[in-house]
Amino acid sequence: MKVNGKSMRTIWPVENDGAVEIIDQTLLPHRFEICRLTTLDEAANAISTMQVRGAPLIGATAAYGVYLGLREDASDKALNAAYAALMATRPTAVNLRWALDEMRSFLAPLAAAERAAAAYVRATEICDEDVAICCDIGINGLPLIIEAAKRKPEGTPVNILTHCNAGWLAAVDWGTALAPIYAAHNEGIILHIWVDETRPRNQGASLTAWELGQHGVAHSIIADNAGGHLMQGGQVDMVITGTDRTTAQGDVCNKIGTYLKALAAHDNGVPFYVALPGPTIDWTMSDGLAEIPIEERSGDEVKWISGRTEEGEVVSVDVTPEGSPAANPAFDVTPARLVTGLITERGLCPASREGLAGLYPEQAGKGTS
Ligand code: MRU
Can you give the residue range of the structural domain that contains 17? Predict the structure, then answer.
């Protein structure tokens, strides 16, 4: 996607240098800065502090993190230690485990002297695969938006609500939930996106709004609590969100607040779609509510908000009474029954065991029943 008219990805290796670069997402939308990762620790830190975030990008960064670690020490012990250090960064997005499993099973049989170069190649392939997958999610989701556009009076936009950031900043390029939106925009379909601010970290207000703006897609940022009201008023034609982990029976776990949007959509007959790449499916899990680990982050993220003053300075302010504690569950589970359909790189399917097994028959047998 484009930043100030220039095509970019969210992570890339620096040619003939050995380092990897990322966009520091903690500084957006007020500052656009590129950050250099040269060690395993820096990669792990970038994931835990959310300089990079979003399920596919967490996986891609972990893959390069293994490469950076093996540059220093390529022994079996170091490979396992890199796996463990990266795995401990964030618990919910299963792409992390997927990417680390891919890297370790590819690298473990190799001689230590070959591992760093091979890790670089495999991490780069994982990134390229993610770009192709997300592009296909866009192609497969596009007909849903075309159909919605046909039902709208001529010249009026299709109104799509999205939560958090499941755009290109959350992946290597294109994104998941925003990929069909970009595909539709590029086809000339008139769109308007309702962007949930997504407290507490405001990924919607800070990141989704920024990237939609960079690409010229019309949007409005709304308070997290506004979605239900807009749906009651017929102002939302569909919801599309991403997911950090999808179980074999089609339950989806995404940024906290997604479940409330699904409930409101269900009550108002608004289609609720979830876009996901294959590596986001956890075939070992069935019941999302019982089984998916939910990341618990610092209460300070609820209490403190950062923003830009009129003078242009970026500051953090505490919006809560001194002494009040805060709780911060970062994800919630939307049961499959509330999901109208899943949009994947292999096509659309119902959010069900049969639906997912139909698209991924080679995986379906491996998980739980
Ligand atoms: O905590 P974050 O910002 O990593 O959460 C990201 C999300 O919840 C996204 O919706 C999800 O990763 C799907 S991404 C394409």
Answer: 2-129
What is the C-alpha separation between 263 and 339, in angstroms, rounded?
A: 10
Whether 121 and 146 map to the same domain: the answer is no
Q: Which atom of ligand 1 is nearest to the CA of 171?
A: 15
Query: Do 123 and 185 lie in a common domain?
Result: no
Which residues, 6+ apart, have CB-to-CB distance to 125 below 8 Å? none
- Cβ–Cβ < 8 Å for 52, 95: no
Asked if 190 and 124 sit in the same domain, the reply is no
Question: Is 369 within the bounds of a domain?
Answer: no
Cα(163) to ligand 1 centroid in Å equals 9
Instruction: Determine whether the shortest distance from the Cβ of 175 to ligand 1 is under 6 A.
Output: yes
The position carrying tokens 């012990």 is 77
Q: Report residue 83 as tokens.
A: 């796996």
Ligand 1 lined by 214 (C-beta under 6 Å): no
Question: Catalytic: 244?
Answer: yes
Q: Is there a single domain that holds both residue 114 and residue 231?
A: no
> CB-hemisphere CA count at 13 Å for 290?
5
Report how many domains make up the chain.
Answer: 2
Domain end among 70, 94, 129? 129
From first to last of its 369 residues, the chain has per-residue pLDDT tens of 889 889 999 999 998 899 999 999 999 999 999 999 999 999 999 999 999 999 999 999 999 999 999 999 999 999 999 999 999 999 999 999 999 999 999 999 999 999 999 999 999 999 999 999 999 999 999 999 999 999 999 999 999 999 999 999 999 999 999 999 999 999 999 999 999 999 999 999 999 999 999 999 999 999 999 999 999 999 999 999 999 999 999 999 999 999 999 999 999 999 999 999 999 999 999 999 999 999 999 999 999 999 999 999 999 999 999 999 999 999 999 999 999 999 999 999 999 999 999 999 999 877 654
Centre of ligand 1 from the C-alpha of residue 174, in Å: 14
Find, among 280, 273, 295, the residue nearest to 248 by Cα: 280
Residue 368 falls within a domain, yes or no?
no
Which of 206, 254, 296, 301 gets mutated to test ligand 1 (max ligand atoms within 8 A of its CB)? 254
Catalytic residue, from 130, 224, 237, 244: name it: 244
Given the CA of residue 243, which atom of ligand 1 is nearest to it? 13
Domain end, chosen from 129, 163, 194, is at: 129
Ligand 1 close to Cβ of residue 55 (< 6 A): yes
